[in-house]
């Protein structure tokens, strides 16, 4: 034996908003669907995906930098209303869970 320990590596992705690398499970996958940027929390929707932290700050940075159309390789701007709504709902659930503890 070589003496090396085998550790399982976790896949990492880069957030298109803040450009920080994070474990894939900490990021939210988004896909382009008919001109909309659709959240894909299960990671099963077909097509190219872009990853973003599920916080409004990173979503706003990605929109400001026009990162979603570039990462998803689609021409023109994408509507991110559904993504913002999803992130805001997730933040509301997190805040409710934190206050109940």
TrEMBL record:
Residues 13-77 form the YlxR domain. Coiled coil: none annotated. Pfam families: YlxR. The lineage of its organism: Bacteria, Bacillati, Actinomycetota, Actinomycetes, Kitasatosporales. This is YlxR family protein. CDD domains: YlxR (cd00279). InterPro entries: YlxR, YlxR-like_sf, YlxR_dom. PANTHER family: BLL0784 PROTEIN, YLXR DOMAIN-CONTAINING PROTEIN. It comes from Streptomyces coelicoflavus.
């Amino acid at each position: 034996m070589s003496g090396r320990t085998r550790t399982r590596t976790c896949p990492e992705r880069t957030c298109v908003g803040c450009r920080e690398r994070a474990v894939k499970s900490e990021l939210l996958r988004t896909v382009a669907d008919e001109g909309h940027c659709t959240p894909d929390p299960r990671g099963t929707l077909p097509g190219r995906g872009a990853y973003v932290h599920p916080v409004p700050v990173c979503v706003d940075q990605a929109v400001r930098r026009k990162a979603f159309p570039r990462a998803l390789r689609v021409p023109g701007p994408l509507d991110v209303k559904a993504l913002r709504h999803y992130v805001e709902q997730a933040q509301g659930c997190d805040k409710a869970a934190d206050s109940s503890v």
